[in-house]
Each structure stands twice: as C-alpha cells, then as structure tokens.
Structures
1.
Amino acid sequence: VPVRNVSHRVIGFLALFSAAGAEDFGLRQTRLAELLARKVSSILLTQFDAGTGLPTRASFEQSVAALLTGRSGHVGDAVIYVDIDQTHVINENFGMHVGDEVIVKVAEVVRRRSPVAALAARISGDRFAVYLADADADHASRVAEELRAGAAELSQTRPDGPLKVSVSIGVAPVPAQSRQPLSHALATAEIA
C-alpha cells in the first residue's frame, strides 16, 4: 500500500506479507492496510521535518523527555543549539531555493557529525538542536566545533558570487533539578 504525503506524492510503501499457502488478503485486510498507511503518513508528517528528515521540535522534546524519565544517576547532559548565520542574506543574494539547500546541507552535517547516540532535530526554520546524554561541557564543545567546521566546509564559490556558510553555536548543560530541563538548556544555549 503506498504511503503518501499531503500532496498525495508517494513517499514510501507499507508491505504486508502472509504465510506461504495462506489465503490472499481480503477486502477487510486491504482496508486495514490502507488505514495503517494513512496512520504511518500522519506520524511521518508530524514527527519528522519534511525538508531535512530530522525530527521536529515536538518529536525532539518528546524523545528527550522520555530519555530523562527513564534515567537515574547520570553525569549530566548537554544541549547544542545551532543557528545558520545570515540565512536572509543567502536568500536575498542567491534565492530562497539556495537558502533551502543550505538548510538541508547543514541538517546533513548535524546528522552525520553528531555522535551516534545523540538526538538531533530541526527546531525551527534555520535552527537545530543536538541533545547529548552523559556529556560534559568539554565533550559538547568538541561536538559543537565539529558541527561548526562541517558547516564552514559548505561554503563555495558560485557563478553568481561566493556563498559563505557559517553557523553560530551555543552549548549548555541540562539542569537536572529543573521542571523543564530541556527548555532551560535550549534557552541558555541560544543565548550562548
């Protein structure tokens, strides 16, 4: 059964299998599969950013909350806040399609250069967050520097001029005793 996005473009397939020798699927099973495909599509649209494939802010917050709830006695966590510099200048000088390409490429840097166990998300237009469990400030700063360097590598010379890509990054510890530890850490990292 095809899984479709809001514009009805196929973004994947839901495949159902039956045991060898079993009867073919009937109308009821077919309708159930179609319902499941719509549910999968709904989950994908609400949990993942369509442009970058990264989790949305809401999904990110849910994942971090689940992680914090299920843990006890850890060394501390950190959050990294990544903001692409001067996206509006890129949009004005090269067009919004180039600005969108930069956002997608920076998202790929965030995805590939974050540690395997990190939680990364696109939290708004040109902003990303990375949650590092059991990470001290030094480790988080090293990861942040890796992300900054990766974004800088995206700079290029184009026929219509130089395209400079840079990011501003803030790092903050996640306060263990806070009622809203992620919100506080993200606000602190944004200021940083």
2.
Amino acid sequence: MRIYHDLDDFNPVPGAVVTSGTFDGVHVGHQKILSRLHEIAERNKGETVVITFWPHPRLVLYPDADLKLLNTFEEKAELIKEQGVHHLLRIPFTKEFSQLSSEEFITKILVDKIGTKKLVIGYDHHFGKNREGSFEQLKLNSPKYGFDVEEISRQDVDHVAVSSTKIRKALETADLETATHLLGRPYSISGRVIKGDKLGRLIGYPTANIEIDSTHKLVPADGIYAVTVLHEHAAYKGMLYIGYRPTVDGSKRNIEVNIFNFAKEIYGESLSIKFHQFIRGDLRFNDLEELKAQMKKDEERSIQLLNNH
C-alpha cells in the first residue's frame, strides 16, 4: 500500500474505487466498507483509494473537547493496509480545509485529483463544510460528476450499531468484551519502555513502564488486564496495570506491564500490547505484602484466561 501525506503527491489511478472518512479504530463497520471497496476494484480491475483526515477533524474544530482516539495515524495505516487497500491518502485537516464545501470536495478532490470511478460510503456519511454533503446529494448528481456511488448499510453486531464512539465508551468503562467485539480484534496500545522506580522488582513482579506514543491515544480504564505483549515479533503473555498506584500514594497515571517468563533489559525499546480481559479495578492495599499477595492472584487469573483464550 502506498501512503500519500499530501494531495499534491497523489496522481489519478486507473479505475479508482474510493472511500473517505476518519476510520478511527478501523472497526468491523469500516472493515465492511473496505471489503466492498476491494470487491468492486477486483471485479472492474481498478485500484482502491482510502481518503482519511489527520489530525482527526474534532481535534481541530473542538480542541478543548479532549477527544481520545483508538488509533495513532501509524496504527490506522497498518490496519487499513491489512485490508488490502492499494492507496491511502492522508489529507491534513485544518480549519481552512474545514471550510471546503461538499461541492468543492467532490469536484476538486474526488473528480479532479483522484479520478474517482466508484465511491463507496458508510451509512449516514456526511462531508464538506458543516457536514452538508450526503449520500442523497451524491446519488442525485453522480451523472454530472462522472462516477457511481454506493452506500453501505449500517453495520450491526448483535443488533448494536458499530461506532468509534461506542468503542471508546466501552474501553473507558473496562468493557473489553464489547470493545473487542466491535473492533473485530483486541484493542492495542504501543509505546516505549521507560525507567520507573523499580518497585515491582522489590515485590517479585518486575514491570516495564510504558510511555504511550501519542497524547491523544485512548488508554483504557484503570485496573489490571490480561494482555499479550509483542516485542521484536515475538508474543508473550502478561498482566498490565493502569492507574495511580494508590498503595504507594502515586501522583501520576502509570502504565506498567509484567511480562511472564521474560528477563530481557528493554529500556528505550518499543512494545505493542493487546488487551484480552479485564481482571479487576485499581485498589489501595494496606502494605506491599498485601499488594504482592493480590498480584499473585492476578497473575494466576491472567494465565488461566490467556490459556483459555
């Protein structure tokens, strides 16, 4: 898959089958659209093009809203690549770009710049200034624009409409089961291993302290999770803690992972962590011995769940 970071870098491709959107999470609803894109392109010997916007439009239009995202751009690009897309066009989203009318978006970008032959959009998709553009408008004017348009019906999972917002809310309440179901895979975070106070070593549970790649990346609710940890293309089982470490009066939110059967020094290296099961919420213990006893139970529970998984 080729990635373009500016409109000027892109040239029209043959038989362009196109979709556009923020694609935060690349969840099962997005996957349905991308699958349809691939199907049409194969049938017509065309090439697939995904247009996405970065930063996320809401971060630009509502900077005080403190929106947390399911993906960094790099994560999103990798997930889109896994869906077999040929071209990913990242349009820098600015306040100036937000003033582009739906008509201008269609003519200047979809028609002139990309050479769209077929446009596939999700249910209730809107675009252009004040979200004025719609499927109905596109359908009505498609002969004038020179491309066909298709709308994918609302994607439901167990009668629940899939959305990035629902997934965010599930992760913020430690409802991993719902988040995993709607994403179609475990939620993941990536980050660099930084030095901590080595308290975990004192109680027999050394942890890697994780610094997340992006300030806008959503970190799930505080507590203990059963996880798998990816390091240098190898996967390890582990348990991860998110919270303020109330037992030792911690002052900042930490992300620490205890990797089972792992003894390497990995300061400064990157880890990717997949969340499989929520074990328990964050708790304050009377002393470190009580904390250690609980961590033993957490470890046993995590191993049991990961083995069953």
3.
Amino acid sequence: AFKARCAEAKARLGLIMQEVCRLVGAVLTEWQAAVKKLPAFKAHAAAVQDIEAQLKRLMGKRFVTETPFERLQHYPRYLKAITVRLDKLKAAPARDAQLLADYGPLWTNYERRALQLAKQGTHDPQIEQFRWLLEELRVGLFAQELRTPQPVSVKRLEKVWQQLSG
C-alpha cells in the first residue's frame, strides 16, 4: 500500500513543482515591481518604512519553504497591493497616513503576542491566522480593488483580537 501511494504521489510531484515554480515566479515579479517603485517615495518616510518592514516580513530568505502554500498563493496580491498603495500615495498622503494609523495598533498587538509566544517557545494557530488577517487588512485598506477572500476591516479585526485576548 505504501509503495502504491508513493507511485501515485510521484506522478503528481512534477505538476506540484510546476505550480510552485509558477507561483514563485509571480511572487518575485510583483516583489520586483514594488521594490523598483519604492525609491521614488523617499519623501513619504512613514509609508516607505512600513512597506519595507512588510516586504522584509513577507520575503524572508526562506519564504518559499517557510510559508504554507495556501498563504503563498496570496503573496502576488499582497505585493500588488503595495504597488497600488504607492500609486495612490502621492495623490493622497494624508489618507495613507490615516489608514496606517488605523492599522498600526492591530499590528502592534499581534507583534507583542507573537514575540511573547516565541519567547515561551509556543505556537498559537489562532495568532498565526490573525497575522494573515492583518495582511488581508492591508489589501483592504490600501488596495480595495484587489479584493480580499473574506471581509476584513479594522473594526472586525479589533473584535477578533478581543476574542483572542479574552
């Protein structure tokens, strides 16, 4: 039975690898587009700093192997949202600053809890899920036209956080 399962899997392995490679190509294309645009926005220091931190979190050295495939599939949209945000930034810097101010406390709460869990050597799947909801919130706030798979808003995530903390 084990050998039969191995043979079945072997046939699909090539297709899976092709899909991963296609996805990674799309991720890198969007990443490159975002990184290329960034230098033109140095006058918007807070936004650039936030985007650079986001890129660093998303695109770690081992992002392909360390990111669950179901999350990796959303990376092109997350990265595209960064370029959309940059496109809107020059026209409405105050709007961007306000959205960032709305988003900031949620990220800070998550970051504190994640750090605390890391120090304890524990993993909480709900906190991990919240982290990805925050990524979706960025899309919802800065690039609504790219859509999110589920409804997200600052208020919704504040409620989710209350439940996680309570």
